[in-house]
Amino acid sequence: MPTSPSSSAQAAREAVAWRLRELRKEAGLTVVQLAAECGWHYSKTSRIENALTGPSATDIRRWCAAVHAESQAHDLVVQSINAESMYRQWRDQVRSGLRYIQESRSRFFRETGNFRMYSSSLVPGLLQTEGYALAVLGLAAEIHHLPVDDSAEAARVRLERSRIIHEQGHRFVVVVEESVLYCQIVGPDAMAAQLGYLLTVGAMPAVSLGVIPMSARRSHWPEETFHVYDDRLVSVELVSAEVNVTQPGEVAQYLETFERLRRMAVYGAEARSLIAQALNAVDHADT
């Protein structure tokens, strides 16, 4: 089981906090003395050292100056920025709108050659139809209480970004739980269109679409939705945040987990049969 992504982000913060605390102790300064040198209340020093508050770049530079370790400031700033970027709360991301989130990832997607996607809840974004994407992003706007609902524009950008599956130089390995095919995110017509699209896109040469049957004997339990990009980045979706994992050891854990999930899935005619059954269920529910 992969290390909890939220705990990994916290561990990265704690590593920065630990180094700052060691620098203070090596300089022979108390918490109060360090705070006085930096020009802030001693409680801030305590919060930073206990990884309760992430230090800004200015905070780190002042700290290093106070302990006469200016040469270490740059590396600590970079380490701190990396730690904070691992854990990006949704409420912070959506401030600029859902469309911005979709646009900000387009270039990264184009630069990725090998996509591995696992979902236990929804059809992955790159395989979504317009109606399905609009429903998902509309729910996101509602859940995050956006003052301006730009889900329609975000859905359009998501569809444009999804055209990458038709471009050469990319490979997509997608694994979903069978329950994804029955999740009632949209109405019957839109769901039928989405399932029909899965049948089409699953036959594309660049796409390997696997479905883990609900009846399958589990060799690994369902996980949170995660995507792996070129063995260098894992994006994990939590309720409160998106966590980006880049440490090679942790990425390797997710790759191992993905392989276990992938081996439980069925492909080709068997996967199409499961999708067709879900489509048939939608058709009967609509009559």
Automatic annotation (TrEMBL):
HTH cro/C1-type domain span: 20-62
Stated name of the protein: XRE family transcriptional regulator
Pfam families reported in the protein's UniProt record: DUF5753 (PF19054), HTH_31 (PF13560)
Molecular function terms, GO-annotated: DNA binding
InterPro entries: Cro/C1-type_HTH, DUF5753, Lambda_DNA-bd_dom_sf
